[in-house]
Amino acid sequence: MLTIKQIEAFYWVAKLGTVQRAADKLHVTQSAATKRLQEVERLSASPLFEQAGRKATLTARGHEMMLLCADLLESVAHLEEIQASTRNIPRVVHVGVTELVAMSWFPALVRKVRTVYPQLTLQPHIDHSAVLRDKIIDGQLDVAILPEAFVTRSAARVNLELVEFAWFSPPGTFNRGEVVPLQQLATLPVIEQDRTSIITALCARLFEQVGVEPTRLGGSRSIITLAGLIEAGIGVSCLPREFFTNEVAQGRLQIVETDPPAPAVRYCAIYPEHAALGLAVAELARECCDFSRMRAPASLG
């Protein structure tokens, strides 16, 4: 993969005509500029410069590469301007997150943004994924962190982690270590979030694939409330696997391995296209994203 320094070397050699002029422009030695240029040429599928003459003359492929590099360097410069300006101008960034993000690694993102962009303040908006997506489309949010299924083509995206889900039941419902057919699990009431939840839709698809229709109970938008209903013996539910490790260890909940297994959900950070600030926060989200930090509160009641 090319680095920004290598791209700069190619761009300025093409622009100024010689390696020495490019080296002077970049304030590096000629040998350093040459090495960077050689790496660009090595990774290119075809020659970028004509072989004849002392002045660097671009091939047709080189001209294409030059245009791409110019656009990229312009975007990098714009991001650097955004970063410089955010250090001096207070700004509120409206970030939409799901409950899962808010209760896991969102605090780490807030701390990271404060470090990198001291004058930025993140204003969280916690809601369901469909609502967050619509707010991105309507321009009410700068960034939204939500499941991949809700990503809209009108927004740019940065891929984040995959979240593993599992079925949870009241303790003692099934033998420990037993892999339970989904048809057997479906004999118990299934406690669901509302119909807009991606995990509700994915689980419904799994039940349909194995040809069963369980008794569905409307639980709550909150996964904490769903866990409390499971512990009370109301039924089973599909929740983030790592979120309730303490409750499982305490014997308050039981993880049920099923065939087919519970689904996994890819999360993404989305932002309006060409929004440099949105991209900057989304990239920091990728650095901070860690759903293994998920922990439920000490009490579900």
TrEMBL record:
InterPro entries, sorted: LysR_HTH_N (IPR000847), LysR_subst-bd (IPR005119), WH-like_DNA-bd_sf (IPR036388), WH_DNA-bd_sf (IPR036390)
SUPFAM superfamilies (alphabetical): Periplasmic binding protein-like II (SSF53850), Winged helix' DNA-binding domain (SSF46785)
UniProt keyword DNA-binding, yes or no: yes
Keywords in alphabetical order: DNA-binding, Transcription, Transcription regulation
Residue runs in coiled coils: none
GO molecular function, one term: transcription cis-regulatory region binding
Segments forming domain HTH lysR-type: 2-59
Stored Pfam families: HTH_1, LysR_substrate
Family: Belongs to the LysR transcriptional regulatory family.
Protein name from the UniProt record: HTH lysR-type domain-containing protein
